[in-house]
Design goal:
Blueprint lengths: L5 H9 L7 H8 L4 E4 L8 H10 L19 E12 L4 E13 L13 H10 L2 E11 L5 E11 L15 E6 L1 H7 L3 H24 L3 E7 L11 H5 L9 E5 L19 E3 L2 E4 L14 E4 L2 E3 L3 E4 L2 E5 L3 H4 L2
Parallel strand pairs: 1-2, 1-8
Antiparallel strand pairs: 2-3, 3-4, 4-5, 5-6, 7-8, 7-14, 9-12, 10-11, 13-14
Length: about 325
Amino acid sequence: MQRPDKDIIRRVLKKKDTRPYTKKVIETALNLPLISLTEEPFVNSPIADWVTEQQGPGRGSTIPGPLAEPLFDEFVFHYRDIILFDDSKNNELIESVLWGCFVEPDYDVGVWSDIDPKVKTRLIEKGWSVKFLHLAVLYKDRPHLHMWQGLAVAGAEPDFEKNYPGASEGFISVIPTESCKEMWGNTITGMNQMAEALCETCQMVWHYAKYGDKHIVEVVPTKTKTKAPKKSSLYKNRPWLTASGPHILFLDRMPTTQKQGTGTHASPKPHRRRGHWKTLNHPRFRHHPQYQQKIYVKPSFVGPRQTTYEGNIYRLVQPLEERLS
């Protein structure tokens, strides 16, 4: 399976003015879950349509309600969209590809030494969710790759960094590294907006994964890749060829080549189960913030949660609410 983000990874590694921890982040990214949505601009995708429908007419594609928990602690998000290109001389809507790698901020990439100490102290005191984000943006028909490094912060306090609609239910903000500020100078605001846009699009994906009509499925090859070829110059210059991170797909059922059985003990035909509300009252979830409250269990499909198909293993990624259905 060809890695869909290999072109942008190649460009990141070839860029001369990268930060010292960039290469380490890329090495990590190749082994993380990859969500790639590049078949069409995200604004025209079924996920964006679903978000707009949830918000109601006139709201546009914005975050639908409280922030949703990511399904992965660390992951890569790669998508195509139509965004505003602003080069201080003119601005226009242009098709672009955005690539972001989210890793834990305590990961050994040297990022904390590149963050204002006062900001670090405040983040620790507040206990907000913090990830280190490496962002790469490629505008269509423009040769230069734009990169940004910093922290992606999610919390529930409306007066941090900015105040946008829906902040009372949760906010998303980004904090560039000091070297990133130095590199971009007066145009850092535009890159901050790109980083925020990527984080907010991730939120739409997490909401869709939680409440939408399709499910997140991990796909990995049945044959594991050997480590020996990494020593050759070919694999050294093309590290994506030995990437081991799973690809993430949105499916309404697992692929299968098996014919439907018949008789009393035949497996049930794969079908959709309706979404419903359920009280979260099992003792094992007593520490969950919605314990003893009604939660929505999204529509699910009845069938195998893992299957092998055409040389790949498909495995369902289940949020808490789905495990309770």
